[in-house]
Amino acid sequence: MMDTTIMNVTLPHIQTAFHQNLSNSQWVITAYTLAMATAIPFAGFLGDRFSDKRIFALAIIFFTIASLLAANAHSLQSLIIWRIAQGLTGGVVAPIGIGMSFKVIPMEKRGSMMGILGLPMLLAPTIGPALSGFLVKDFNWSTVFLINLPVGILALIFILLFLPNFPANKASKIDLKGALLSPFAFPILIYGVHIGADKGWSNPSAIAFMSVGLLMLLLFILVELRVENPLLHL
Questions:
Q1: Rounded distance, CA 51 to CA 35, Å?
Q2: Of 184, 203, 210, 225, which is most buried with the most CB atoms under 10 A?
């Protein structure tokens, strides 16, 4: 959430640095969001199949590396590529983190846990722009990515030292139908919303993408309700 809101203030500085128009520069945000939407449905399967702790740690490592590479991007195109990498790994971190919390925290304390986990989502819209404003004013746009490095390193240390091991279920099988639908349903719908917010909800492209996205999302839901091992438990 923070990595999305923090870009709102940073975007004009990226636009200036790479001599790009706003439409092209917005892909720094859009690409991250679409990549995250693509990865989220696969997080549960990956955690079950290869161990939650292992996938969580790998996602943190690759997210941190992608942040470092994004900070050193020399073109808008390369920055967008590393933002996609951030989105793919970031989309795995949150679902697995919440899933592991449910496994280690007793039932009677889960309400408090959900409140604590939801707090960053409430604070991010305020803290993100304020933090990015400070960083780009006193430093430059790359620092909004560099702040992920110490956070990622500390998170990895915590994972290795304190997080219990969760056994992998080698027999876990992926829902192939859901796996084929989800990478299209969620990103297409979100991209349609992005176009609608940018160019108006009556824009033909916005209507087309949202319609296709909603149709594929409906098909995805129907598939998930019927398969034995759904990608998402609905």
A1: 22
A2: 210
The three-state (H, E, C) secondary structure of the chain, written as one string? CHHHHCHHHHHHHHHHHCCCCHHHHCHHHHHHHHHHHHHHHHHHHHHHHHCHHHHHHHHHHHHHHHHHHHHCCCCHHHHHHHHHHHHHHHHHHHHHHHHHHHHHCCHHHHHHHHHHHHHHHHHHHHHHHHHHHHHHHHCCCCHHHHCHHHHHHHHHHHHHHHCCCCCCCCCCCCCHHHHHHHHHHHHHHHHHHHHHHHHCCCCHHHHHHHHHHHHHHHHHHHHHHHCCCCCCCC
pLDDT above 90 (res 79): yes
User: What's the pLDDT score for residue 153?
Assistant: 96
- Angle, CA of 187, 120 and 195, to the nearest 5°: 25
Specify the CATH class of 2-172 in words.
Answer: mainly alpha
Digit-coded pLDDT (tens) for 101-111: 888 888 777 77
